[in-house]
Amino acid sequence: MREIVHLQAGQCGNQIGAKFWEIISEEHGIDPTGIYHGESDLQLERVSVYYNEAS
């Protein structure tokens, strides 16, 4: 199992963290609402490393 611990501290940390998630989402074809709109199975191959579906 792979896990990523992501911490943000201060204004700079928040800005960098927000950009990180924006880029990761774009790379995996996930829009800001969390819906997948990609065209490649490769985008979904390791998506569980970054995202978990919650209810």
TrEMBL record:
<keyword id="KW-0547">Nucleotide-binding</keyword>
<dbReference type="GO" id="GO:0005525">
    <property type="term" value="F:GTP binding"/>
</dbReference>
<dbReference type="InterPro" id="IPR013838">
    <property type="entry name" value="Beta-tubulin_BS"/>
</dbReference>
<keyword id="KW-0342">GTP-binding</keyword>
<protein>
    <recommendedName>
        <fullName>Tubulin/FtsZ GTPase domain-containing protein</fullName>
    </recommendedName>
</protein>
<keyword id="KW-0493">Microtubule</keyword>
<dbReference type="InterPro" id="IPR036525">
    <property type="entry name" value="Tubulin/FtsZ_GTPase_sf"/>
</dbReference>
<dbReference type="GO" id="GO:0005874">
    <property type="term" value="C:microtubule"/>
</dbReference>
<dbReference type="InterPro" id="IPR003008">
    <property type="entry name" value="Tubulin_FtsZ_GTPase"/>
</dbReference>
<dbReference type="Pfam" id="PF00091">
    <property type="entry name" value="Tubulin"/>
</dbReference>
<feature type="domain" description="Tubulin/FtsZ GTPase">
    <location>
        <begin position="3"/>
        <end position="54"/>
    </location>
</feature>
<comment type="similarity">
    <text>Belongs to the tubulin family.</text>
</comment>
<dbReference type="InterPro" id="IPR000217">
    <property type="entry name" value="Tubulin"/>
</dbReference>
